[in-house]
Design brief:
Elements: E1 29-33, E2 40-44, E3 56-61, E4 63-65, E5 69-71, E6 78-86, E7 89-95, E8 105-108, E9 111-118, E10 124-128, H1 134-137, H2 154-157, E11 165-168, H3 180-183, E12 188-193, E13 216-220, H4 222-230, E14 233-237, H5 239-248, E15 261-265, E16 280-284, H6 291-300, H7 302-314, E17 325-328
Parallel strand pairs: 1-17, 3-12, 3-14, 4-11, 14-16
Antiparallel strand pairs: 1-2, 5-6, 6-7, 7-10, 8-9, 9-10, 12-13, 13-15, 16-17
Helix pairs in contact: 6-7
Length: about 325
């Protein structure tokens, strides 16, 4: 029987949605789920190193969030830069879209842009006459469920301490818990996937397999691929890392090609899925009926994940981007 989107629903009280980060990154709670036994533990994220074995390798997403949301100088138009095709060419979401037809102009911080193309899905290609200063005029596109606009403090906290490759609209949130001190003591490697707006796109299809997955750009270095192959167990830090590694894993083998890889992935992971590369997953708590909770359910089993989520709600864990985390081993 086909899985339905409603099979991944759960009740979440609004007060459990974290709209702001904790004062300390590593102060989050951590729900530990053991796949084989079904055991659930309540721990703190600072205990995470206890679960990392000598032959493990953490893989983290080093994408860097850019302040991709800008407003026209007259305040009438909002643009969200989905992709910088060149320093002066953006693929954008634009509001209100009906006014921004081909040839219409918009000015941000004195820099003039013109709509050069309207794509089939409604995105706009905007060409600027100079580089827009995002640091001065841009805002972080915080997820809608935070219920607030970005603040100065978010520039630092809605960013992992290891972020270095600019291009994401949203943070790879499982990585937000790490401090430099913890990370330097753990075996780790990086890849890059620029998290796009599709991450927050709701699943509107009634049947899971009818959902059309978004595509995101990734890059894996030859060194990271080699270290993944040499690891006894790979622990993916986040669903973005999971999607990349499972996308490029060799068919039928728990390994990658040992060469640099870059491209786009639109892999949609839902139960049942045979995981070829990852053996552990650190992730935050995700929205009901989202592609992300479907991925987590593919890794740990839908019933166990929903049981763990119900436990997290009972114990008042903090949910979503600035919330607590779950380790699945």
């Amino acid at each position: 029987m086909a899985l339905r989107t409603d099979d991944f629903d759960f009740h979440l009280p609004d007060e459990l949605i974290a709209s702001r980060p904790l004062e300390e990154r590593a102060a989050s709670r951590m729900l530990v789920v053991h796949r084989e036994s079904g055991k659930i533990e309540h721990r703190m994220f600072r205990d995470f190193p206890e679960y990392v074995r000598e032959d493990d390798l953490l893989v983290l997403n080093d994408t860097k969030v850019i302040p991709a949301r800008v407003f026209s100088d007259d305040g009438k138009v909002e643009l969200l830069c989905l992709d910088r095709l060149s320093p002066t060419e953006w693929r954008c979401l634009v509001r209100p879209g009906r006014k921004m037809k081909v040839g219409r102009e918009v000015t941000v911080g004195g820099t003039r842009g013109v709509v050069a193309e309207v794509f089939e899905n409604g995105d706009r290609l905007v060409r600027w006459d100079a580089v827009v200063d995002l640091d001065a005029h841009g805002h972080l596109a915080l997820p809608h469920y935070m219920g607030r606009d970005d603040e100065l403090a978010d520039r630092e906290r809605y960013q992992t301490v290891f972020a270095r490759e600019e291009g994401a609209i949203a943070a790879p949130t499982a990585g937000l818990h790490f401090t430099p001190e913890m990370l330097e003591k753990l075996p780790h490697a990086f890849l890059t996937l620029h998290v796009g707006v599709g991450t927050f796109r709701p699943v509107s299809a009634e049947v899971v397999t009818d959902h059309e997955m978004h595509s995101e750009r990734y890059e894996v270095t030859e060194e990271s691929a080699r270290r993944v192959n040499e690891a006894g167990r790979v622990i993916a830090v986040g669903t973005t890392v999971t999607r990349v590694l499972e996308s490029i894993g060799l068919e039928g083998e728990a390994r990658l090609e040992e060469q640099a890889a870059r491209g786009e992935t639109d892999i949609f992971i839902y139960p049942p899925h045979e995981f070829r590369v990852i053996g552990g997953l650190l992730t935050n708590f995700h929205l009901p009926k989202s592609t992300l909770i479907m991925l987590v359910s593919a890794f740990a089993g839908r019933e166990l994940v929903l049981e763990a989520y119900a436990e997290a709600v009972r114990e008042k864990y903090r949910f979503y981007s600035y919330g607590d985390c779950m380790l699945i081993v």
